[in-house]
Write a structure and sequence with these properties.
42% strand, mainly beta, 7% helix, disordered N terminus, 348 residues, Immunoglobulin-like
Length: 348
């Protein structure tokens, strides 16, 4: 149903902000964004907080992580967002403090609504920035803000439904259902170190391990991995990264690592060629990647798995599996793989 724009001239004047204005408080750190359990990475333009306490995000990345498709229309400097289920469409225009929402109520019926924005979309550092909360919530997502950590958590309606569907019913002696635990129903990754008390000059080995491999349906074999660890590069030097398959390090593989990846992390990528038959590629529990570091300090430090999604680069950590017909699947989402990001603490 169409609604009239109930926006006063004063409201419009205040909201039509340009990127040259003092848009956000620079003394505060930029907020972090987590979508369906995955940390979002931003390479050239971080989210910002406007003077009206709205979080503005780069056009792509967050919305795509929510399953939406995004179209930039240069002719009128507008953004067209389509939800994962194709039911909701949002239209935003640069410097316009009104968003139009279209909702498909039937195959032939579309309702429209004009929604005021306390901060209009704008261009900053050649990036289109749009208000996160109003866009996310109008796509049916749950948005939470933690003031202490400046962390924004977004849970899409598809994610919330998945959690609800996989939450066990309460037992006879329980009044509420137990909390959903992905370790009960998904394969998951975690870290294990050979030692946690170290000193300068020591070499520490950290294994990335797979558990609950029996939760993977079908007959699959390992065919690749992307694994990323966060570490403090001022305290550690990355020495090596290798895939490990059933206790062996494959030799005839395509692999490589970047020890100075985004935000103090090492990213390792390995692809096992389909015709490589000198190793058992059966998917089993155990170590699937091994990292070694030289310690450059006697101080405390942490190492953790990166469960991050970066636009243009994809998931930091995921598994690639192939069946006998060379069909492939990638485990990289909340309904296929759980990544335990609990850090290993050293010298605590």
């Amino acid at each position: 149903m169409n609604k009239k724009r109930l926006i006063s001239a004063l409201f419009s004047a205040v909201m039509l902000l340009s990127a040259s204005n003092a848009l956000y408080a620079e003394e505060l750190p930029n907020p972090t964004v987590i979508v369906n359990g995955q940390l979002l990475g931003f390479e050239d333009q971080e989210p910002i907080i406007s003077e009206n306490n709205d979080t503005l995000i780069p056009l792509r990345g967050v919305l795509e992580a929510m399953g939406a498709t995004v179209e930039w229309r240069e002719e009128d400097r507008s953004v067209y967002v389509k939800s994962f289920d194709n039911i909701t469409r949002l239209l935003l225009t640069i410097d316009d403090p009104v968003m139009t929402k279209y909702t498909l109520t039937s195959i032939t019926t579309v309702d429209s609504e004009e929604i005021p924005l306390s901060t209009a979309p704008l261009i900053m550092n050649d990036r289109t920035m749009i208000p996160l909360r109003v866009v996310s919530e109008n796509m049916g997502a749950q948005v939470d803000w933690d003031d202490a950590t400046r962390e924004i958590t977004i849970k899409t309606k598809e994610y919330l439904k998945y959690i609800s569907d996989n939450t066990p019913a309460p037992g006879d002696d329980e009044t509420t259902a137990p909390e959903y635990n992905p370790k009960d129903s998904l394969p998951y990754l975690y870290l294990e170190a050979d030692k946690t008390e170290v000193e300068t000059g020591d070499v520490v080995t950290v294994d990335l391990k797979l558990a609950n491999s029996d939760k993977i349906d079908g007959e699959w074999e390992f065919s690749g991995i992307t694994a990323t660890l966060f570490y403090d590069s001022s305290k550690l030097t990355s020495e090596s990264a290798d895939m490990v398959v059933n206790g062996e390090i494959p030799q005839s593989v395509l692999d490589g690592s970047n020890a100075s990846y985004l935000n103090d992390s090492i990213k390792y990528v390995c692809v096992i060629m389909p015709n490589y038959t000198d190793i058992d590629k059966t998917v089993n529990d155990g170590t699937i990647a091994r990292f070694t570091f030289t310690v450059n300090t006697d101080d405390a430090f942490d190492i953790s798995i990166a469960n991050r999604l970066t636009p243009g680069r994809g998931a930091d950590t995921c598994l690639l599996l192939t069946d006998e017909n060379l069909n492939s699947i990638m485990l990289d989402n909340y309904d296929s793989l759980y990544i335990d990001t609990t850090a290993i603490s050293f010298n605590q």
